Amino acid sequence: MDNSSPYQAPASPPPPMPHPGLIEPPAVKAFGVMHLILAGLGFLMALWSLLSPLINRAMMANTPGYAAQEKFQQDLLWVTLMTAVFMLALAVLLLISGLKLVRSRPDGVKWSHRYAWTSIATKVISLVVTLVWVLPKTQQFVGDAMSAAPGSKPPEAFTAVMKGVVAASSVATPVLACIYPALALYFLSRPAVKAWCAARLPGAA
Fold first, then answer.
1. Do the Cβ atoms of 27 and 187 come closer than 8 Å?
2. Among residues 17, 56, 134, 173, which is most buried (max CB within 10 A)?
3. CA atoms within 13 A on the CB side of 146
4. For the chain, what are the domain ranges?
5. pTM for this one?
């Protein structure tokens, strides 16, 4: 017996798939949380960069390398202040963009882009300042501190190695610090994120 019947109701079509722009990409919340964590760390690091010269001065007082340490801190005072200002500015941008992304606000992506480009720009400035000013002063400080150390003068090879390590770390630090803003810029510029932002704009269908 034929099971088909002209009186049988047609099978219901499958439910429509939601618009891709209506699905929030996981990167939005993930970077929102990371932005907030790094914002808190940024405020703490900015505070520490301002307090560390005072702490080091108190700890180095009456030590053989105190004069070299004091001169080094004076030479880099303006760099310390510049770095603290950079950290505070980036922490504010991270806080604003992080709160907006966690709350699923599409303009949080725009604020995240502002943070990323500002962060990369500050790292480039810091790298130039490091090569032109910080690195020569640091090399001089290492040599002066080792010369002022009690006992016999350390071998020239050891001093050269120490200066090389300091130089490598000074250059690598701002370069490696560009990784996170570059990742945020890449993942929050993906087509799925752009579609989600466009779908949540006022007046979007």
1. yes
2. 134
3. 16
4. 25-200
5. 0.81
